[in-house]
Design goal:
It contains three helices and seven strands. The chain has about 130 residues and is an alpha+beta fold. The strands form two sheets. Strands 1, 4, 5, 6 and 7 form a five-stranded antiparallel beta sheet that branches. A two-stranded antiparallel ribbon has the order 2-3. Strand 4 and strand 5 form a beta hairpin. The structure holds zinc ion. Zinc ion binds next to strand 4. The site of zinc ion has 4 residues, from strand 4.
Length: about 130
């Protein structure tokens, strides 16, 4: 199971993630963390999606290439987390919903790289990373 725990993030990213959630809450933006850390095996499974397995392509990274796979002293220490905004308690996957821009803005103000930003290397709306 991939982790959704903030403690699976790199120590530098944990306070940013907590502050991100705090600011979102202040902005009346309900956010669900869908993933912090995932193992190499989980990453490869995700990479297969849309290629050799059913579904849409959701990542360009193989095992060890994603900021979600990072470790520190052998422990999970992801440098990225994924989110989805909740509206009326339901996840909103439609990227054109304004909640995404709002969350993205808040993340970028904290110095995180948001892959949903215009001009991002590739579009991955849920992904925030400390580069
Ligand atoms: Zn991600």
């Amino acid at each position: 199971m991939p982790s959704r725990n903030i403690k699976s993030l790199h120590p530098d990213v944990q306070p940013l993630c907590r502050e991100f959630l705090r600011r979102c809450q202040s902005a009346n933006l309900d956010i669900l963390i869908t993933c912090t850390w995932r193992s190499g095996a989980e990453q490869d499974r995700l990479y297969a999606q849309g290629r050799t397995a059913p579904g849409a392509i959701v990542t360009r990274a193989r095992a060890g290439q994603s900021a979600h796979n990072a470790t520190l002293n052998g422990q999970p220490a992801a440098r990225a987390f994924d989110i989805v905004p909740l509206v009326d308690g339901k996840p909103v996957w439609d990227a054109s919903h304004p909640a995404w821009q709002q969350a993205g803005q808040i993340g970028m103000e904290l110095g995180l790289t948001w892959y949903g930003a215009p001009g991002a290397a590739f579009r991955e709306m849920p992904h925030f990373e400390l580069c």
